[in-house]
Amino acid sequence: MANRALDWLAQGKYDLQHARNSLSMGDYEWACFAAHQAAEKAVKALVQHRGGTITPKVRPGRRSTMPKPFTTFAVTRFVNRDVVLSRLKDCARRLAEEIPGAEVRLFGSYAVGTPTPKSDADIAVVVPDDCLVPPARAKDLAETVFLEAPVPVEIFVLTRTALAAGRKTGVSLAGTVARTGISLR
Length: 185
Description:
This protein is of the alpha+beta class.
């Protein structure tokens, strides 16, 4: 299993910012929930950073995998995909100003049209191979810019070479981005 400590930490930072935003709006219950989520993800990051593994706890008789997504009229009426895409495109334009030559691609449920109220937006920032902005800095910039997104966002940074390899093989994260990703420009 890959070490995803940095991914857990990045998502924890996003959740902490969400908690701060909720606190500033006086939404104290949601601020507490988001702060708890941030702390949980920070602990997971630390465990993985130190070589530990994270295994989900499953009660006997319960399934251990996520159920397949479903859509009903009641669920889809609360997810306005067009509004979310418009706001994500605004964020992508701002990020393009910060990272010249970067392409921002949306993949996952929002890209293929099956988001639910619990969906996050999966964002791939595709940078030139000779990009002057290091990948870690590109991820930090993207996380900051996408704090304005109306839904939680998970950021991945790929080089153009990695995306091209994903197009050829169709496997890995790069393959998923190449296969299902849509440009946010």
